[in-house]
Amino acid sequence: MPGNLLGIHALVLTGEVDADAVRVAADTAADAGYDLLEVSLHDLDGLDTATSRQDLASAGLGVVGSRGLAPDADVSSDDSAIVDRGVALLRHSVDAVADLGGSLLSGALYSALHKYANPVSTVGRSNAIAALAELSSYAASRGVTLGLEVCNRYETNVVNTAHQAVCMADEIDADNVVVHLDSYHMNIEEDDFVRPVHEARERLGYVHIGENHRGYLGAGHIDFWSLFHALVNVGYTGPVTFESFSSAVVAEGLSSDLAVWRNLWDDGGALAHHARRFMADGLAAAHPTACRS
Ligand code: MN
Prior knowledge:
By secondary structure, the chain is of the alpha/beta class. The protein has helices spanning 19-31, 49-58, 80-100, 122-141, 162-172, 183-189, 195-200, 224-233, 254-257, 268-286, and strands spanning 6-9, 36-40, 62-69, 104-112, 145-149, 177-182, 204-209, 240-242.
């Protein structure tokens, strides 16, 4: 049976994005058996895309780029100057993903990643949809798909549920826009771990696997078995990426945006090996056994 590509967020292994850090993270991820490395694009200027592209390829890894926007560069703003800066940041990010050899840019592409003080306005949501519709054409020209990650209410006010992501994707109306579900956020916002998968179904293009406290898989209370079963039942064949954060590995800015205050683990390498086995075993166990005559 064809397996999902399994990925790991680089912040399990390093908080830096320079060529040396990406190479070490790639080698560690490959050693743990992963297929993909997710690179956060929080420091675009610090990336060495040409060198890292070679190092990722040498390690036999695919790459996914991820990010949220910023308060002064936010396509869901009512202020057109702030929207324009958000669009420029997204185009730069599409270029970074393509230059790294990747084909997926995902995350909170539709807003800043922080606790908003108010609901998104009608104008702000329309601005985000228009910006992403325009960006999707540019991304297609560079062979990049855009993922709308469903994030919890404390990190965005635009897309908190799978239903909202599907609605936004329908309004953007582009073939290279997919929905990205994350068990950590689903635990806060969704009814359960099954309905959102069925809701997204053919739009689903990326999945993050994280515990409720973003530490060791199985150490918290997320019902991963329901999620794995749902993914298998809808025939999801896309990538599944482990995401975890601890104060042991810090990326300036991003770690604070994500409220990573606690030390949930010290050894990212050991965590990476454990999570790879957890996801592979869970997905394999979720496949129905063949009928026997
Ligand atoms: Mn995530």
